[in-house]
Every structure is written in C-alpha cells, then in structure tokens.
Amino acid sequence: QVQLVESGGGLVQPGGSLRLSCAASGTIFSIRAMGWYRQAAGKQRELVATISSGGTTSYADSVKGRFTISRDGAKNMGHLQMNSLKPDDTAVYYCNAQCYVTYADYVNQRYLNTWGQGTLVTVSS
User: Fold this and answer.
1) Distance CA 20, CA 43 (A)
2) Contact criterion met (CB below 8 Å) for 119 and 93
3) Exposure of 76 by Cβ count < 10 A (0-12 exposed, 13-18 middle, 19+ buried)?
4) pLDDT value of position 74
5) How far apart are CA 70 and CA 41, in angstroms?
6) Which pLDDT belongs to residue 1?
7) Do the beta carbons of residue 2 and residue 114 sit within 8 Å?
8) 11 to each of 7, 88, 108, 122, how far by Cα in Å?
9) What does the pLDDT read at residue 57?
10) pLDDT given for residue 75 in this prediction
C-alpha cells in the first residue's frame, strides 16, 4: 500500500505565500510523476501542477509564474511553493502520485495512482 500525506495548508492573506508538502510512504520502488490538484467549494477538482520523474513541470494557466512544483526523489516527497496568493486560490489541495511498487511494475509500466487526503488553503484578509 502507498499513502500520501499533505501538509502546509492554512490561512494566508492575499499576496502571501505557502509551501505545501506531500510525503509518500509504503512500498515504493519509484514515483513516476507527482501532481497537485485543487477543489474549491462547489467546483470540480482541477489540475494545478505536475512534475515528471525527469523533472519536467507543467502548470495551469491560472498559477503560472506564481506556483512552483518540485520533488525530492530520494525522500519520496513533493512540494508546491505558492506565492502571490489570491482569494481565488482558496481550495482543498490534493497531492497525487503515480507509484511503481516493484521493479517489475516499472518495467511493465504498472503504477498505482494514489491520492492524499487534502489540505485546506484559505486566502483571505
């Protein structure tokens, strides 16, 4: 089993910054890709940012230039640095990871698509 635990959410004023972290634990050979998604009240979950095993990143247009996704492969951790936060960024943020459990899974491209429980980010004055 693989588990993801997010941390770092909270209340911040507009223009402020927060750094979210995601820790993966369990039986993991390697992580194929990690991503952050968010879901605001009454809205669908949306993609915020992703990062591949090779470090290639992609961002939603709404966060480009303000958010930075990173990962620490050795520690099976991911981070989302959020700067210049706006009230529209208020949401529950979820970590996602595509994990290979064994080497055989890696060779055969079988991975577990795992989600964290979410962490609430509130941007308000």
Assistant:
1) 21
2) yes
3) buried
4) 81
5) 26
6) 87
7) yes
8) 13, 13, 43, 5
9) 97
10) 84
Tell me, what's the pLDDT at 11?
98
| Burial class of residue 113 (count of CB atoms within 10 Å of its CB; 0-12, 13-18, 19+) | exposed
Residues, the chain, total?
Answer: 125
Q: Give the pairing of strands 119-123 and 10-12.
A: parallel
Residues of the chain scoring pLDDT < 70? none
- Residue 22 CB partners (closer than 8 Å, separation 6+): 4, 5, 6, 7, 34, 36, 77, 78, 79, 80, 95, 97, 116
For the chain, give the DSSP string.
-EEEEEE--EEE-TT--EEEEEEEEES-SEEEEEEEEEE-TTS--EEEEEEETT--EEE-TTTTTTEEEEEEGGGTEEEEEE-S--GGG-EEEEEEEEEE-SHHHHHTT--EEEE---EEEEE--
